[in-house]
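WARN retry 2 of 3 for item q-0093 after timeout on previous attempt; input resubmitted unchanged.
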Amino acid sequence: MEDKYILKTPIKYDDIKHLKSGEMVYITGDIYTGRDAAHKRLFEMLESGEAMPFDFKGQAIYYAGPCPNKPGQVIGSVGPTTSGRMDAYSPALIENGLKYMIGKGKRNSAVVEAIKENGGVYFSAIGGAAALMSKCVKSAELVAFADLGTEAIRKLYVEELPVIIACDSNGNSLY
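OK item q-0093 returned
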C-alpha cells in the first residue's frame, strides 16, 4: 500500500510542482473557507487597494459554506460548492497570491491559465461527503465578513482533508 501524500499548510510551490492531475493528496493545516459573496468582496477589496483579511501566501481557500455546528461538534457539514461560481474573481485573486483552491467542478480557461502562470493548484474535494469532510476539521474561527453568515471567511484547521488534484501547476485538468 502506498503512503499518503500529505501537504502541510502553508503550501510551498516545491511541495506541489511534481503533483499531477488525478492524484489524491491530503491537506493538514490551516485553510480558509469562502464562497461567492466572500469572493466578490475580496475582489472589490483588491480593486480598491484594501488589505486582504488574511495573507494569501501559501494558503488554500475552500469553496464551502459550513453548516452551523451541533453541540459537541467543531463545525457542521462542510462540503465543496461549485467552483465555477468563483471564476469571475479567481484570476485576480490568483495573480495576487492565492494559488491554492479547493472546490468541485470545472474551472474556466482564464482560471486554468492563471493557475499555470502563477504555479498554483486546484484541488477537487469530494462532493456529497460534507459530513465526512467535517470530521477532518479540528478547529474553526471566523476571520472576516460575519454579516455573510455561512459564507463568511473562516479559518479551519484540518487534518488529512482528502482532495484530488483537478488542475495541476502545469495547467493539466481532469476536466
